[in-house]
Design goal:
about 0% strand; disordered N terminus; disordered C terminus
């Protein structure tokens, strides 16, 4: 365990100080996975949790809940990420995006009934996906080696630091009891898994090595988000076990 911690600390330091060909450290390959033996064991554990707990719960939720309700719940939790997204807009000097996200929050919280609906989209307020891991990548911090975190899923040293930092940007823990926040996180996770039922099933059945598929998909999507690609790859299961540490 001590050796593993030392490796992770060294990887994080190398990510912060090492050279990078472009934002997000595109010089690193998607298969840069020196901890693969450990990662595969954690991935297996996460997959078992999904197969025996999360997927059955999602299928049950899917049977009793209409699609429009699932998407409304998804909208609600996306709206609660407003502080995290906006703070990272500003940290990346994306002031126009920050203004747009403030407008989205205001419109969807009021006219969208606390965010369950998304009228802001039709009003021209573009949705942005930002977090502190992307902010670090935007300013040239390389991602470092691929990591699989227990329950939290695909990550790397840069994005792991980002998860912790984003938890500090969430304001709801100051106003909502931790047990309620935990229940909300469970509900959000089940709802997200429900929305991705078909995509994840197709990814599992269609990939020769699901571990490699998830790793490569995660790397590609994060690189696209860091570099503001207009064609960021769809999730398709790379966030299957990714539960943000922030409690919105």
């Amino acid at each position: 365990m001590t050796r593993l911690v030392a490796i992770l600390c060294a990887a994080a330091l190398a990510s912060a100080c090492g050279p990078s060909a472009a934002r997000g450290g595109r010089a690193l390959r998607a298969d840069y996975d020196p901890l693969e033996p450990v990662n595969r064991k954690i991935f297996w554990f996460n997959d078992q949790v999904d197969a025996h707990v999360l997927e059955p719960a999602a299928r049950g939720w899917n049977r009793i809940t209409p699609d429009r309700v699932q998407r409304a719940i998804g909208n609600f939790f996306v709206n609660l990420r407003f502080p995290i997204v906006t703070v990272n807009d500003l940290l990346q000097a994306k002031f126009r995006d920050g203004a747009s996200d403030v407008g989205r929050f205001a419109v969807n919280t009021t006219f969208g009934v606390l965010g369950f609906f998304d009228p802001a989209a039709s009003w021209g307020f573009e949705e942005h996906v930002e977090d502190f891991g992307q902010t670090l990548g935007w300013w040239g911090v390389a991602p470092g080696p691929y990591l699989v975190l227990p329950l939290l899923g695909p990550s790397n040293p840069r994005d792991t630091v980002g998860l912790v930092a984003d938890s500090a940007a969430s304001v709801t823990p100051f106003f909502v009891d931790q047990f309620i926040l935990l229940g909300a996180k469970v509900a959000e996770t089940v709802n997200i898994r429900t929305l991705l039922l078909e995509e994840i099933e197709a990814a599992k059945s269609g990939s020769f090595d699901h571990y490699s598929f998830v790793r490569n998909a995660y790397f590609q999507r994060r690189s696209a988000l860091v570099n503001d690609s207009t064609e960021a790859p769809a999730r398709n299961g790379e966030d299957l076990y990714r539960l943000d540490l922030d409690q919105e």
